[in-house]
Amino acid sequence: MKHLLRLAATVITAVVLAGLLAGCSVSINTGSSTPDTTTLRPPVASGSILPTDPPYTTLPDIIANANYEAYIPVLQGTLSDFAEYASEYLTYSLFDINGDGIKELFIKRGTCEADYEWEVYTITNGERDLIGSFGGSHSTLYNCKEGGISSLEGHQGVETITQITYEYGQIVENVIFEKQLEEGEDYYYPEEGPLEWAYINDYSLLNKG
Q1: Domain residue limits, the chain
Q2: β strands within the chain, DSSP E
Q3: What are 93-145's pLDDT values in tens digits?
Q4: Given its phi and psi angles, is residue 148 left (phi above 0), alpha (psi -120 to 50 degrees) or beta?
Q5: Is 8 exposed, middle or buried (0-12, 13-18, 19+ CB in 10 A)?
Q6: Would you say 79 and 42 are in contact if contact means Cβ atoms under 8 Å apart?
Q7: Among 26, 54, 154, 162, which is most buried by a count of CB atoms within 10 Å?
């Protein structure tokens, strides 16, 4: 009788343990403390419509391109700051706005069209500097034959193109085109074409400098 009781207790213990393990994930330490850094992928907010699998660059490639490594924390910080609102409109571009051989970072930040703005960063003596900002609502960045870049804004039938330059240490805005569109009239798009852009969780542009 005692033998049967001990056997029953063993069976019950085994069943309970199996049930507990079924509801748990078991982590096995292989003895390696080196994290997987083959890719840098900032977390994407739950429910975000940012792409989760674009052509990410590898960590060695980014380190090799030291000029723009300083921009990585800005991309990560923007995704972190606006994770709740992350959308396909949070993008960035690189463009040498003042012809000194260093491409500035233009990154869109904000929660929605009502408060989007473009922040502009440059690199001076290896250090990242915020040099200014300008409105980003309903806007796309274009090359500008007059110099600098142009920001095309279209909203409620009004099109505005603003030339953006960097002069005397600050961002300068100059409206070069503005028009109230007639019903059915198309927007005018600068012939120079838009700047190349990427989502803020895609580092691929950093290797094209």
Answers
A1: 50-207
A2: 91-95, 104-109, 117-124, 127-135, 139-143, 149-155, 158-167, 170-180, 198-199
A3: 999 998 989 999 999 999 999 999 999 999 988 889 999 999 999 999 999 98
A4: left
A5: exposed
A6: yes
A7: 162
